[in-house]
Specification:
Blueprint: H1 2-6, H2 9-18, H3 23-27, H4 35-49, H5 53-70, H6 73-89, H7 93-109, H8 113-129, H9 133-149
Helix pairs in contact: 2-8, 2-9, 4-5, 5-6, 6-7, 6-8, 7-8, 8-9
Amino acid sequence: MFFRRKFAWVIAITLALSSSPSLASRYAETQTIPDATIQLYQQGIEQFNRGQFPEALKTFDRVLKQARKIGDKKLEGTTLTQIGTIYRRLGLYSQAIEFLEQALAINIASKDKVNVGITLYNLGQVYERLGQYDRALESFQGALAIAKILKIYS
């Protein structure tokens, strides 16, 4: 309980990070992602928001395959983060860590700071639920540092 209260600010950071531009607007200028893939990604977000996690997993798996097919690392990292987040919400923590660590490596390599922050936050949530408080704290502090860099949190 103390741990959760102490890091309540992380919720505010996450809301700020997740309120970043939609996938469609982030890629509108480059047009590297087919419209059908963007629509599929948005469908996965809608399924996630409705709590339809099994359906969202299937949808994001299709998006992940498309991202890899077209070689879009930012989309791949973003999608891996979404999949890891779904596994976290389902309480499947080992799968969540697996996908979130893959996402983190790709998001760092592609310099996608917003998704690095979101991924670190989700890793922190998993580690907290597993009782690995030192690792959770490290992840939350990383998310906070990203939020400060992006001037989302002061």
